[in-house]
Design brief:
Helix content is about 35%, strand content about 35%. By secondary structure, the protein is an alpha+beta fold. A hairpin with a 2-residue loop joins β4 and β5.
Length: about 130
Amino acid sequence: MPRQAVAHVIPLPHFAGAVSAVRRRARALLADWNVCPEIVEDSLLVVTELTTNAIVHALPPAELRLTWVRGDGLGTLRVEVTDAGRALPAGQSPAGFDPDEHGRGEEIVHALATGHGIHVHSGGVTRWADLVAA
């Protein structure tokens, strides 16, 4: 089977309530692309964690890029969120930030993704995660 790829970019509005709308759009895309059901819920959780991180901690603009690559009996979904970089200096939290309710996103992404990482570039920061399904 030849490799086939589809991708879509979703701009991230910079307010906390935007995460649920972005998640709904991502769910619809995954359904349209017939992404393997066994990774859909994990993928949406990764989308939620990475977009929340960008909206709460980074400067706009930000965007979510989803890429579904199917071939050789496997499917890989790449979730990428690119933002303009940190909004506050390291160690400083936004007003109203409760550390007891935040800070587990990276652990969640690490637990669900086959691979993940951070790429710092001139345009900002891209956090990515790959989820693989048979």
